[in-house]
Amino acid sequence: MIKDFHYFALPIEVYFGVGESNRIKTILQEKGFTSVLVITTPEQEEDGVKLAQQLGSLVCDVYPKAVMHVPVEVANKAIEVAIEKKADCCLALGGGSTIGLAKAIALKTDLPIVAIPTTYAGSEMTTVYGLTENKIKTTGKDLKVLPKVVIYDPELSLTLPATISASSGMNAMAHAIEALYAKDKNPIISMLAIEAVKSLSQALPQIVKNPDDLTARKQATYGAWLAGICLGSVGMAIHHKICHTLGGTFDLPHAQAHAITLAYSIHYNRNADIEAMDRLGDALGVSNREHVGLAIYHLNQSLNIPLALKDIGLPEQGPSEVARIVCDNPYYNPRDYDYEELLDLLSKAYQGLPPVEDK
Question: Where is the chain membrane-spanning (predicted)?
Answer without folding.
Answer: none
